[in-house]
Amino acid sequence: MSTTKPIRRVTIIGTGVIGASWAALYLAKGLDVVATDIAPNAEAALKRFVDAAWPALKRLGLAPGASQSKLTFTPKIEAAVSGADLIQENGPERLDFKQKLYGQLDDLLPADVIIASSSSGLTMSEIQLGCRSHPERCVIGHPFNPPHLVPLVEIVGGAKTSEETIQRVAEFYQGIGRRTVRVRKEMPGHVANRLQAALAREVYYLVAEGVVSAADVDTALCWGPGLRWGLMGNMLLNHLGGGEGGIEHFFRTIHPSHDSMVEVSWKPRADPRSPKEAHRQRSCRSRLTLHRLAWGRT
User: Fold this and answer.
1) 145 near 18, Cβ under 8 Å?
2) Structural contact between residues 192 and 219, judged by C-beta atoms closer than 8 angstroms
3) pTM of the full predicted structure?
4) CA distances from 188 to 10, 116, 122, 124, 267 (A)
5) Is 17 a residue whose pLDDT tops 90?
6) What's the rounded Cα separation, in Å, for the pair 170 and 174?
7) H/E run at residue 17
8) Whose CB has fewer CB within 10 Å in the chain, the N or C terminal residue?
9) Residue 235 carries which DSSP code?
10) pLDDT tens digits, residue range 236-286?
11) Which residues fall within 8 angstroms of residue 169, CB to CB, at 6 or more apart?
């Protein structure tokens, strides 16, 4: 595989919410995009999504040559992948489906074409077993939804993914303005979703225990740590919180008190039949209703 081959033409397999968002981003970056999906009305739905996303992308800044006219659609995968420099796969999160698809792509594509999966729940080591000839070109390129607005992309190789593939796909994503994270060990959910899940568990616990309302816990996140996290991650904040002693001082003096705060909350998952869980769900539904009213949605 040559690392010097430019990526100008991207094939999107699967044009649901994630695939359509990827398509909008790639078009805004001036790339040629060929999309394929066998779902009824997939082409019309994709074009509606791109058209709706375009004003925001224009405000962010379109690349030279960016145009919605560079989008083509075909239901036939053989036609869709012909001439592609990179495949962005967004198929159903079913291992049997992906392995069969990757076997088909392996037969159709030249060896230097990267196959990047948006999968959040499956590992590339499992998926690439479907690639008999060139599993080394298969990699996870997991976005944070929606990809056309949120720049994070998690890159995860499988057991047979080459370092060259990882470097090349990282350069590609970075070249179109994405912020990449190299995940060095395969885990379900990768990194960002696992961080979200850990925080969500504590949020649900606090609401279920009656410590705080659903509305107030959102306020606490948005107007407290959320503002800091948008600029600095947890590790940098810990380093700053340690003062002149840095993160080493933080772990010696402040971190133990953090541990004691959360020890009580890490209990088994909530029983959906319990009164506390029912209260939490009612609170969250009420919170969602308020959000919809605020944004004029029904």
Assistant:
1) yes
2) no
3) 0.84
4) 26, 17, 6, 11, 21
5) yes
6) 6
7) helix 17-28
8) C
9) H
10) 888 887 888 888 877 777 656 555 555 655 554 555 556 655 555 555 555
11) 86, 114, 116, 139, 141, 155
Residue entry with tokens 């999968």: 119
Residue in this structure with the two tokens 């060095």, named with its chain if needed? 184
Query: What pLDDT is attached to residue 251?
Result: 76
Q: For 31-45, how does the pLDDT look when each residue is reduced to its tens digit (9 = 90+)?
A: 999 999 999 999 999
Look at strands 138-143 and 152-157 and give their pairing. antiparallel
Q: Which residues make Cβ contacts (< 8 Å) with residue 20, sequence separation at least 6?
A: 45, 46, 49, 50
Interatomic CA distance for residues 135 and 9, integer angstroms: 21
Could you check whether the bond before residue 146 is cis, i.e. omega within 30 degrees of 0? yes
Angstrom distance (rounded) from CA 235 to CA 208: 29
Q: In this structure, what are the phi and psi dihedrals at residue 210, rounded to the nearest 5 degrees?
A: 75, 15
User: Contact at 8 Å (CB) between 194 and 187?
Assistant: yes
Which pair of structure tokens corresponds to residue 82? 């012909």
Residue 268: per-residue pLDDT? 47
Chain mean pLDDT for the chain:
88
Contact yes or no for 130/109 (Cβ under 8 A): no
Are 101 and 13 in contact by the 8 Å Cβ rule? The answer is: yes
Q: Is 150 helix (H, G, I), strand (E, B) or coil?
A: coil
CB distance 128 to 161 below 8 Å = yes
* Partner residues linked to 138 by β-bridges: 115
Contact by Cβ (8 Å): 139, 155: yes
